[in-house]
Specification:
This protein is of the alpha/beta class. It has a single domain (3-341), classed as Rossmann fold. The protein is built from 14 helices and 11 strands. The chain has helices at 15-29, 45-50, 59-65, 73-82, 117-129, 137-142, 144-156, 173-180, 193-207, 212-218, 222-229, 253-272, 295-304, 327-341, and strands at 3-6, 33-40, 109-112, 160-167, 184-189, 235-244, 246-247, 250-251, 289-292, 314-318, 321-325. The strands form 3 sheets. It has a 7-stranded parallel beta sheet, with helices on both faces. Strands 7-8 form a two-stranded antiparallel ribbon. A two-stranded antiparallel sheet has the order 10-11. α1 packs across α14 (327-341) and α4 runs parallel beside α5. The protein is globular.
């Protein structure tokens, strides 16, 4: 696969940070490929991290959003709204190279920056998709980001290209645009039962399968339209047990209980609907990835825009606060993240 949406129907599970890790590590390990990050989350967290970390003044984001057209995903969407059924001629106007703002990022990583304007544009996108003419208006509109990935592949020429698409937890229409443009879905979750319900919602919203009161409504929206109009429905690729609490090198009992509930849920659905999964012949639970919790390392990496391979052990200064990164847990953390990236 060459395009992945990072999505869960629940916020706070670490999808943007995992997307940051995946994109920077993949770009580092594959210098002959172009790695594109498309930020479809209005908060723009993955964009901020790639552009140098969480700057109070947001200088990089302000630079990109102040250009005309906006050098962001919202700028691209605005252009599509002005001519909904015709592809944009010049996509370079919406592409930036994070290395110009953050020297730690590989030069072959490129970004379609996030933008809070995306939330405001969502109603205009939705209304455009409901136009009576042309008859396939929804299909054309829901494929806008897929059109963008195709244009970016063409832009890369003979170079391989890979896409990381960071999606908002909501199932807003701009999230649907990102999912349609993806071949596989990475689903991070954390050790709480709401994550299990969120995983069920992912499957209900995408495929119209689940508890009756959920799937009934899902079937009249995205999933049924996608089937009827031949629109891509991405496959469930990897479930990531994120921020696993360890005791003596093993997951805590509480985590193991919740983790097993999620595994049972996806395996139960797999028995009836193997076509939803990227590897239909294997039980999805056998491919779960566990990422141990190392809060200090993830906060340092995200706040400073530092790829995980460049994070070193020792004392750090973060906004005047002293932070200590210890060698053993950092190495364990990096190893788990590296194994995750190796699955892409």
């Amino acid at each position: 696969m060459a395009s992945y949406a990072f999505w869960n129907n629940k916020g706070g599970v670490g999808k943007s940070f995992l997307g940051f890790i995946a994109s920077t590590e993949y770009a580092r390990l594959n210098p002959d490929a172009d790695v594109y990050v498309i930020d479809l989350c209005p908060q723009g967290n993955i964009s901020e991290t790639l552009l140098g970390g969480f700057d109070i003044e947001a200088k990089a984001l302000n630079d990109l959003t102040s250009q005309n057209p906006r050098r962001t995903v919202a700028g691209y969407i605005e252009e599509r709204l002005s001519s909904p059924f015709r592809m944009v001629d010049d996509i370079d106007r919406f592409v930036c190279q994070p290395k110009q703002y953050n020297a730690k990022i590989p030069e072959n990583l490129l970004l379609i920056c996030g933008d809070n304007l995306l939330e405001i544009l969502s109603e205009a996108i939705r209304q455009t998709s409901q136009l009576a003419v042309p008859f396939d208006a929804w299909k054309q509109v829901i494929s806008w980001i897929d059109d963008l990935t195709k244009a970016l592949r063409k832009r890369s020429g003979d170079r391989d290209s890979m896409f990381i698409i960071d999606c908002n937890p909501s199932f807003a229409i701009y999230t649907q645009l990102g999912l349609v443009a993806s071949e596989g879905i990475i689903v991070p979750f954390t050790a709480d039962d709401s994550s299990r319900r969120a995983v069920e919602n992912v499957i209900a919203l995408l495929y119209g399968v689940g508890e009756k009161h959920v799937s009934t409504y899902a079937k009249i929206s995205f999933s049924s339209k996608a089937v009827d109009q031949g629109v891509n429905q991405p496959k469930l690729h990897t479930f990531v047990s994120n921020r696993v609490t360890l005791y003596d090198g093993k997951p805590s009992r509480a985590f193991r209980v919740v983790d097993q509930r999620v595994k049972d849920t996806v395996d139960r659905i797999h028995r009836k609907h193997r076509s939803f999964y990227a590897v239909p012949k294997e039980k999805p639970s056998t491919g779960f990835v566990q990422i141990p919790d190392y809060h200090s390392a993830s906060v340092f990496a995200a706040t400073t825009g530092t790829p995980i391979h460049q994070v070193t052990p020792g004392p750090k200064n973060l906004d005047g606060e002293r932070l200590q990164l210890n060698s053993e847990p950092l190495e364990r953390y990096r190893h788990a993240l590296s194994e995750f990236v190796g699955r892409l």
